[in-house]
Amino acid sequence: MDILFYIAAATAVISTVLAVAGTGVIHSLLFFIVSLIAVSVVFFTLGAAFAAALEIITFAGAIMVLFLFAVMMLNRGTAMGEMERERFTPKALAVPVIMVLALLVAFGITVFKAGAFSAAVGPSGPKDVGTALFGPYLIAVELASVLLLAGLVGAYHIGRRQSK
Amino acid sequence: MGLPEKGLILSWLLFLLGLFGVLVRRDLIFILMSLEIMLNAAGVAFVSAGASLGLPDGQVMFIFVLVLAAAEVSIGLAIILKLFGRIRTLDSDAAGRLRG
Of A4, A20, B56, B84, which sits with the fewest C-beta atoms within 10 Å of its C-beta? Predict the structure, then answer.
């Protein structure tokens, strides 16, 4: 189980690096989908089967597909790709790299200094998640549905054709 | 250090990669995608924390993170599509120049 976790985690990090490193938008989105599937495998090894299934169905299957459809609708050509490539100079990358390295060190110290949790683990299946959602998290579910309604109405209103 | 703690390290690496993408890229679609990378990394952190305690609460928080990401992506892409119809480029510097 550990080996599967390491392989999946390495796949997720490498494909995310390739997604961010800029090889055209469609390629980056597909690399990110690979990363999402790898993260889903990580969830399976952690015993969170419901989260793993939801990651594939919702994140990789709905949100990224929405991204791909929008990018295909935009039909932008290669102008942005060339502009991005010429902007990747070392001088432009210096400040973000320094900031990310500072956060890397700061987070890393926190993560590695935290003591190990007690090994009271067991897989939490869909039944436990469902019980939690219908029990203590009921109000949060209602608020999430309100948020989705707001997203729906907002996306419809922003995206509609202006009638002259 | 058990498996959930290593999941926390994975979340840390993914979040920093997404942050790097937001800072460096100028294409609006790339910035939105890097935001999604950061949200996914936060979800990994939640699920790892829940798995380390054996509770389903981490997965419940992950569901809410997913709902948030979906709503944000739909509205963000609608805005980007409208913006592209107005200024024929997706450069964030060009989008920042307000022309009344």
Answer: A4
Whole-structure pTM value: 0.88
Chain A: nearest CA to B97, how far in angstroms?
17
A1: helix, coil or strand? Answer: coil
Q: What is chain A's mean pLDDT, rounded?
A: 85
Of B33, B54, B80, the CB nearest to A124: B54
Cα→Cα distances A134→A47, A127, B68, Å: 21, 11, 19
Chain A hits for B31, Cβ within 8 Å: none
Residue B52 · residue B4 · CB < 8 Å: yes
Structure tokens at A103: 């956060």
Work out the number of other CB atoms within 10 angstroms of the CB of residue B10: 23
B-interface mutation test, from A59, A78, A147, most B Cβ less than 10 A away: A59
Length of chain B: 100
Q: Which residues of B touch A63 (CB under 8 A)?
A: 36, 69-70, 73
Cα–Cα distance for residue pair A64/A59, rounded to 1 Å:
6
Angle, to 10 degrees, between the axis of helix A2-20 and the axis of helix B28-53?
160
ipTM: 0.91
CA angle B39, A64, A123 (to 5 degrees): 55
Return the residue in A80, A85, A89 with the most chain B beta carbons within 10 A, the one to mutate for interface testing.
Answer: A80
What is the rounded average pLDDT of the residues B56-67?
93
Q: How many CB atoms lie within 10 A of CB A37?
A: 18
Predicted confidence (pLDDT) per residue in A33-84, tens digit: 999 999 999 999 998 899 999 999 999 999 999 999 998 888 777 666 666 6
